[in-house]
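This protein record is not my work; I was only asked to verify it. The record follows directly below this note.
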Amino acid sequence: MKTHTKEFQQNLTPDQALDVLKEGNKRFVNSLKMQRNLLDLVQETSDGQYPFAAVLSCIDSRVPAEVVFDQGIGDLFSVRVAGNIVNEDILGSIEYACGVAGSKIVVVMGHTKCGAVTAACQKVEMGNITALLSKIKPAISAVETKKGSAEVEEVAIANIEHSIEEIKAKSIILSDLEKEGKIKISSRKFSHFGDLVEFL
């Protein structure tokens, strides 16, 4: 299969982009991976790229976005950071993906058994990890306010929701694109082995 083209990207609606991701995940879950020649895709994308989606996900090795959505080289902008948190550099990367390169959907993808969320709940402090984990604290507080205690899986969901709120609140570019119907900002939660658990 060829990589997605400029025409494909330009003619795709945000809802259709979401459908492409859902279909890819169904293939992954059912072990029906699309056949791709990766070397051909490298050649096809050598003069340009037209990714239709930007995925903000955790660095966890068990949930790589291209694999769980069954996409190839040139199809996704993959933004990865422990705990799928948001900061200025990540916002800038997603703004580039959608505002400059034409991606039609932003997906914040969390997952079960997240080490960063677990460490934040356990109040781990160590080097630069401390500052990173502090960005998960609002999710912990939100769960504690509702439930009285913070269970890791509930915090993982609250953290996805918090990251989406941060994207919309701190990026005028992305929030305006969404208001204009040019992009969709969505979320996903996966099990630690990649199956789609739910659409949030």
Observations:
- The longest strand covers residues 105-111.
